[in-house]
Design goal:
With about 140 residues, this protein is mainly alpha-helical. It has 6 helices and no strands. It is globular, with a radius of gyration of 15 Å.
């Protein structure tokens, strides 16, 4: 695979916003909606500039991710935060629909590895796990 400017810009956007949002989620257990909207706008602009013909694929993937997290939020009686749903939309703007299961699997496996059963009812920040899944899947999707 040849690394292009599109891949580098996409990875930079992913890393910048993933780090900012993960740190904010870990420290405050909440993230700024303005930063999330900025992340989504940056991702949309990146796709419009570098991959306008494939934009529909990423929009579908974004809707799938956001919907999955929305359904999970409803099933778990709002234990998943609304910011996680918005971050799901952000994730989808960089991933092909066929790698969604891989990304979700990476997130869940990492969460199970780091979350101790003694935590109980304490809320845990989920965006760092989502960021890990996004970064790993973004890099690997070009080899799959």
């Amino acid at each position: 695979m040849e690394i292009t400017l599109y891949h580098l810009v996409s990875l930079a956007i992913i890393l910048i916003f993933s780090i900012i949002l993960s740190i904010q989620d870990i420290k405050q257990m909440t993230v700024s909606l303005y930063i999330l909207i900025g992340a989504i706008l940056a991702a949309l602009i990146c796709q419009l500039i570098f991959a306008p013909s494939d934009m529909w694929i990423y929009l579908i993937s974004s809707l799938i991710f956001g919907s999955l997290y929305f359904i999970t939020r409803k099933i778990t009686k709002n234990k998943l935060g609304s910011a996680d749903i918005w971050f799901g939309f952000f994730q989808g703007l960089f991933l092909f629909p066929k790698v969604i299961p891989f990304c979700l699997g990476a997130e869940v496996i990492l969460a199970f590895c780091f979350v101790n059963k003694k935590i109980g009812k304490k809320p845990i920040p989920f965006i760092p796990f989502m960021s890990f899944g996004l970064i790993i899947t973004f890099v690997l999707q070009f080899f799959i």
